[in-house]
Amino acid sequence: MNKQQIINNVSTLLQEIPTSMEIVKDDHKREKRFHYLAKHMVEKAIEKDALITSPDGKGIAILFKTSSKDKNFWKDLIMDIKLAVNVTGIKKGLNALKVQKYVKSQRPKEGEYLYCWFWGILTDARGSDDAKTAYDMKNKFYAIARDLQLPIYAETRIRRISLAYRRYGFQLFNEWDHPSGDKMYFLKYTPPPKDE
Asked: Which strands make up the sheet holding 112-121, listed edge to edge?
């Protein structure tokens, strides 16, 4: 699957996610703004070797190996400014940064971990196939976590997605009243030891 198609698929999926729907500026360039955000995410995922796709390319995830010390402040700041100009607008960008501060505080302060930044499955691959695509991708996540012996952290504001994560063995460790009025669910998966 080519990079452009992955970016297009991520752009489509972002338009279903409450957080991205909220942060992307609502104007005549909205479609372009989603595309810019998708391109930013996919390029960052490729740069960090974090992109996971299903064989048909309809399931896409970004799973970063990271730690609390993994900060390139100036690079991130420049990226945030570019995102503010091209995606969110300044006001929405500042609000998103406040929310991100709380979200990041839910992750480990010490040691490395895996962070599921994005996971989506295109509409036409949902239904009976969705379970298979999601299940196959979950198995990839778990193999990575087990191999590296690192936990996986994720969050979502969609209750049905949080239930799917839990069905797949994630534990809910926090629920937060998001400023938008809905709940945000924080989840963690701990892999079994390698010798099990």
From this structure: 51-53, 59-67, 112-121, 152-156, 183-189, 171-177
Distance from C-alpha of 184 to C-alpha of 40, rounded to nearest angstrom: 24
- pLDDT tens column, 63-84: 988 877 666 544 564 456 566 5
More confident residue, 89 or 185: 185
pTM of the prediction?
0.80
**Span between the terminal Cα atoms of the chain, in Å:** 34
> What is the DSSP secondary-structure string of 115-158?
EEEEEEE-GGG-THHHHHHHHHHHHHHHHHHHHHT--EEEEES-
Q: Which two tokens stand for residue 126?
A: 């949902």
Dist. CA 25–CA 65, nearest whole Å: 30
